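Hello forum,

I keep getting stuck at the same step: I have a sequence, I want structure tokens, and every attempt I make locally crashes halfway through. Rather than fight my setup again tonight, could one of you with a working pipeline run this one for me? It's a single chain of 123 residues.
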Amino acid sequence: VQLQASGGGLVQAGGSLRLSCAASERTFSRYTMAWFRQSPGKEREFVAAISWNGVRTIYADSVKGRFTISRDNAKITVYLQMNSLKTEDTTIYYCGSRASPILSQVAAEYDYWGQGTQVTVSS
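Reply #2:
Ran it on my machine without issues. Output:
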């Protein structure tokens, strides 16, 4: 069972990036998926989550209106479209997955994690 995150990089403030998280098994098409981010020495912070069918989404207040989470179950992939990026968005982004249909904002409640992708926003 693997999640592979990609799409990170260096972008100027105000720019955009799209992160992808590809799952290795079709089972994940029935799982809740989420994005978190974590800086060294800090706890993993919730960013966004999406239900298995894409109908329900929730966002952290800090990204609401700028980030959009979506999924393509045919490709077993979840996306995070990040617009109007700010320097404070700089950190490592992780995708997580859980079998429960509840859209949790708690990292410990997710069972599977990708390896992380670095996002750096320059001023």
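The mean pLDDT is 97. If your local run keeps crashing, start a new thread with the error log.
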